[in-house]
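Section 5: illustrative case.
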């Protein structure tokens, strides 16, 4: 039986034409969908650039509904919700991404990180902690550890904060020696309140070994030694501060002068304070030298010497306090006016946020930055 090749000759062109037509239809459909989805996306982007967040959210929601598999649109939508403070909706968007089986790898880690940020912004620290812990071993681990560190600091969980700081140091995220020393000092304060003197001393001694350049450890250890009746050891500790952490000497100058008087070491301490003032006069160091003066006249000479080196309303007020005016009746109101004018200059100011306080803080109560308060007063900055 002979094979009829006529059907084969007609069939091949017909099959080719059908395939070409089908591909054209698919391509046309793809183009139509492609035009529609970006239109909503770009409209949302335009609103976002114009800081019209509500309109941008509406546009992105439309784009997501048109293509629910687009992870990037979900991320954009979730970030917009978080920025405008709508944390519940941001959480739902990112939890939806995590629930999807097709979101894997870096996108899944990114969604987990975004969810942790949602919880942080909403103040749900326990849920944020759990979300951040799940980022261990991912590209977001460094950011997650820093966020966990902030959480433990806010909750004053110092042992946990120490563990995280040590992890960060091991992963070469920078040096956390000073931060670790602060945590040890915080633990020592808690131990002192509980009457655990030995534990407090142990923590403070470890803090001075961990970060000898931090004045806080030396000052707290000296105060503890003084509290336990060992004034000579307390003085020696502050002398180590003057050597190891000279930038913190103004904070310890008053206690140093008091301990020098009690132990009969005025001459040695005077030399240290005068040497420090020769490098750059400090209000608290000059005040400590005045405390160690043998007479009121010598104390006034200290104030005058400071004024010769550096103009200071605070020191001028101190000097004028014992200088009688020609009109005796004017002495009290003039002195009161000078005291009031110089009072704001004796505050401490955070270098990070500008928060001012009458006392020195190791951690700013305003912005929570560590060591952002210089040891010098506002007038000296």
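Designed sequence:
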């Amino acid at each position: 039986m002979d094979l009829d090749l006529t059907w084969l000759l007609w069939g091949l062109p017909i099959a080719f034409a059908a395939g070409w037509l089908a591909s054209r239809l698919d391509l046309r459909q793809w183009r139509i969908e492609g035009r529609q989805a970006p239109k909503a996306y770009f409209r949302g982007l335009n609103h976002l650039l114009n800081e019209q967040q509500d309109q941008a959210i509406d546009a992105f929601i439309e784009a997501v509904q048109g293509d629910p598999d687009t992870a990037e649109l979900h991320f954009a939508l979730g970030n917009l919700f978080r920025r405008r403070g709508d944390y519940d909706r941001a959480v739902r968007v990112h939890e939806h991404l995590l629930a999807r089986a097709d979101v894997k790898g870096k996108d899944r880690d990114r969604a987990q990180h975004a969810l942790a940020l949602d919880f942080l912004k909403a103040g749900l620290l326990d849920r944020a902690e759990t979300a951040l812990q799940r980022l261990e071993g991912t590209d977001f681990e460094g950011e997650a550890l820093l966020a966990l560190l902030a959480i433990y600091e806010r909750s004053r969980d110092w042992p946990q904060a120490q563990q995280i700081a040590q992890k960060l140091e091991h992963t070469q995220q920078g040096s956390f020696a000073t931060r670790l020393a602060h945590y040890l000092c915080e633990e020592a304060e808690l131990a002192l309140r509980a009457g655990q003197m030995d534990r407090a001393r142990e923590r403070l001694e470890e803090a001075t070994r961990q970060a000898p350049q931090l004045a806080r450890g030396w000052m707290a250890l000296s105060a503890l030694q003084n509290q336990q009746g060992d004034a000579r050891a307390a003085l020696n500790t502050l002398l180590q501060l003057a050597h190891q952490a000279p930038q913190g000497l103004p904070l310890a100058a008053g206690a140093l002068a008091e301990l020098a008087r009690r132990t009969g070491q005025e001459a040695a301490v005077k030399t240290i304070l005068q040497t420090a003032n020769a490098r750059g006069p400090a209000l608290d160091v000059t005040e400590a030298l005045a405390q160690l003066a043998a007479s009121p006249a010598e104390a006034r000479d200290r104030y005058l010497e400071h004024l010769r080196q550096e103009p200071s309303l605070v020191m001028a007020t101190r000097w004028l306090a014992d200088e009688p005016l020609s009109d005796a009746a004017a002495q009290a109101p003039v002195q009161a006016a000078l005291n009031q004018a110089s009072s704001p200059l004796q505050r401490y100011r955070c270098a990070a946020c500008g928060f001012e306080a009458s006392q020195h803080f190791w951690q700013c109560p305003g912005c929570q930055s560590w060591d952002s308060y210089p040891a010098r007063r506002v007038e000296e900055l």
